[in-house]
Each structure stands twice: as C-alpha cells, then as structure tokens.
Amino acid sequence: MKTMTCKQLGGACGEKFHANSFDEIAGMSKQHAMEMFHKKDGAHLKAMNEMQELMKNPKAMNEWFENKRKEFEALPDK
To answer: Which terminus of the chain has fewer Cβ atoms in its 10 Å neighbourhood, N or C?
Structure first.
C-alpha cells in the first residue's frame, strides 16, 4: 500500500490517500475533489481550474498523468 496526498495529486491540501494501485488512488483523489467542489472550497476550486487548463492540452495532460503514475510507483510500500 502506498500513500499520496491531495497536493501531490494536483489538489490543494494534505489529506492522505492510501491505495495499492495508481488508478485506485486517482479515483480517491477524484472523489475527494468532488466533495471539495460541493463544499465550494476555494483552494480546491483553484486547483481544479488549473487542472482544467492542463486538460485543454491532451499531450501535457498525458505527461502530467504519467509523471504522477511514476511518482506513485516509486513510493515505498507501507
């Protein structure tokens, strides 16, 4: 099991997610983002806007996503 924070995954806070795969942790991050969206959390909304800008360039988005996947894979199992 590996751990990444919201901030490490492009978010705005130190909430920790624990998962066995990158896809699983990405899903947890997405769910957390939706919760923060519904709460209208300013810091998370800003991070979401930045992510939306990145998504306008598919190549840049794929590079970002693959870098996060590599970062996850390099983490020690705990």
So the answer is: C
Give the integer Cα–Cα distance in Å for 55 and 49: 10
User: CA-to-CA distance for 28 and 9, rounded, in angstroms?
Assistant: 10
pTM: 0.90
Judged by DSSP in three states, 14 sits in coil
Structure tokens at 1: 């099991």
Helix axes 42-55, 58-74, angle to 10 degrees: 120
| Contacts of 65 by beta carbon, 8 Å cutoff, 6+ apart | none
CB neighbours of 74 closer than 8 A, spacing ≥ 6? Answer: none
Tens-digit pLDDT profile for residues 7-61: 999 999 999 999 999 999 999 999 999 999 999 999 999 999 999 999 999 999 9
- State both tokens at 32: 């957390």
